[in-house]
Amino acid sequence: MSAIGTLNTAHIGINVTDLDRSLGFYGDVLGFDVIGSGDADGRRYAFLGQGGRLAVALWQQAEGGYDAHRAGLHHLAFEAESIEKVREAEAVLRARGVTFAYEGVVAHREGAASGGIFFHDPDGTRLEISVPKGAEGSPAPSATAPTCGFF
């Protein structure tokens, strides 16, 4: 254990190009509630969560979309209650025209029980909704690399 003890993720902050568009996606599509927002001298932000617990902070300060070739956030993964909830999320996302990295639910690796869906937010940020079990028998996009590694 480190000198500072155990750390857990408190929330994730994401730079966005258009806060209203991102609020529609993270709120209406992914189901997060706005639990706080503001405009500090034209710099807009929103805090999103579920059950009053902060999960994602959106900061309207990006000038361009996500760049997978730059250092920083690789992807953001959300864990669902069940594989059925992952499939429900997939249907909602498809109805909204969201871009997916893979077709349907995929395993995290060959033979894994864990897996999910991999897609992109309006700015191209890579997202995942997965479960630790329930994806048994789902295809794995790569026989040698973790599914979430290179989408």
Detailed description of the structure:
- Strand 6 (106-107) and strand 7 form a beta hairpin.
- The radius of gyration is 16 Å and the shape is globular.
- The longest helix is centred in the middle third of the chain and has 13 residues, at 83-95.
- It contains two helices and eight strands.
- With 151 residues, the chain is an alpha/beta fold.
Radius of gyration: 16 Å
Low-confidence segments, given as residue ranges, are none
Structural class, from helix and strand content? alpha/beta
Order of strands, widest sheet: 1-4-3-2
Q: What helical percentage do the residues reach?
A: 10-25%
Integer average pLDDT: 93
* Cα distance spanning the termini: 32 Å
* Number of alpha- plus pi-helical segments: 2
What is the strand tally? 8
Order of helices and strands: EHEEEEHEEE
Proportion of beta-strand residues: 25-35%
- What profile does the largest beta sheet have? 4 strands, mixed
Based on Cα principal axes, name the global outline. Answer: globular
Key attributes of the depicted protein:
151 residues, alpha/beta, four-stranded mixed β-sheet, 8 strands, 16% helix, 31% strand
Write a brief caption for the model:
With 151 residues, the protein is of the alpha/beta class. The protein has two helices and eight strands. The strands form two sheets. It has a four-stranded mixed β-sheet, with helices on one face.
